[in-house]
Amino acid sequence: MAKEDEDLIVEGRKIKFDNGYMSLTDIASLKGTPSPLIQDWLRLSATLAFVQEWEMATNPGFDVEQFAQIRAQTGAGSFRISANQLNQSGCIGIYSKRGRSGGTYAAVEWAIHFTNWLDPKFYLGTLRGYLKLLNSVHGKHMIEKRMTRELASETLRLPTGKALSSLPASADPLFERRFASIEADMINLAMWGMTAMTWRAKFPQKNARKNMRDFATKEELKAVTALQVISQEMQENGYSAEERLVRLTVKADEYIKLFCSTPEKEAVLELAQHKRGWGRFTF
Questions:
Q1: Which single residue of 57, 95, 117, 255 could bond 223 by disulfide (Cβ 3.0 to 4.6 Å)?
Q2: Which ranges carry the KilA-N domain (predicted)?
Q3: Together in a domain, 8 and 122
Q4: Separation between Cα atoms, residue 52 and residue 62, nearest integer Å
Q5: What is the 3-state composition of the chain as percent helix, strand, coil, each rounded to the nearest 5?
Q6: Which secondary-structure segment (H or E) carries 117?
Q7: In a domain? residue 240
């Protein structure tokens, strides 16, 4: 159970989160009956324009032409759109769930947009509450992830260093870099089923320095660290590249199950894979 100062509190009410997505149902209940309020907001032309911009910036698999068919219906008195219909059109910023903590959940930017439409007072309260939450909880999470990322970077030197030590002293630096990238890609293939070059071709980045590991979850980075240690040991024991890849792929599955040890962690990884558009792990 989260501590009181780790919850988002608006107008004295706690707003639920589900894997980083905020409950629109909880927010709407501050003003009235949630379902019609959310539907009224979703059917607005301004809302769908915002949705399109968010999905284009966030969702690599977003189909603008398909979404344009939905936007073309705005203005009609009978037009309605639900979270499930948006999901079917390829949107990932919103979803509905059933159960005790059920309701409509949306990405934080969507929730802030919703509160701005719903009520200026709620908008200000939600924005301030979320900023407080970032400082108290998510700041710590990002520190932990950064430390895990740095550890993965350090242990990458184990297999690549071992590989580079086998080259002659006269080897060209560019060749050395390429040789090291091959070793790194063995881990990438074991973890995510594609090389860095394939990833960049499928998911172009404005920042050329970004790589797959910058978008990995904390649990994935822990698995990467463990795989890099194993890769060095296999090199020392004379395994071929093909043998190492097969073994590392099997171990990647084992480590992900080990580190994603709770339903919450499993859900975080599945959501991360869905949002970024790549990943091969299922539970």
A1: 255
A2: 1-133
A3: yes
A4: 9
A5: 65, 5, 30
A6: helix 108-118
A7: yes
Query: In this predicted model, what pLDDT tens digit does every residue of 225-282 receive, in sequence order?
Result: 888 888 888 888 888 889 999 999 999 999 999 889 888 888 889 988 988 999 999 9
What CA–CA distance (Å, rounded) separates 253 from 250? 5
Amino acid at 16: K
Its pTM surpasses 0.85? no
Tokens encoding 269: 């990884």
Is 140 inside a domain boundary? Answer: no
Q: What is the dihedral sign for C-alpha 65, 66, 67, 69?
A: positive
* Residue whose tokens read 């932990």: 144
> Does residue 82 contact residue 42 with C-beta atoms inside 8 Å?
yes
Q: How confident is the model at residue 3 (pLDDT cuts 50, 70, 90)?
A: very low
CA distance 16 to 262: 19
Give 23-46 pLDDT, tens digit per residue. 999 999 988 899 999 999 999 989
Q: According to the model, what pLDDT value does residue 59 have?
A: 84
- The H or E element containing residue 127 is helix 120-133
Domain assignment of residue 25, given as a range: 4-132
How far is 60 from 180, CA to CA, in rounded Å? 29
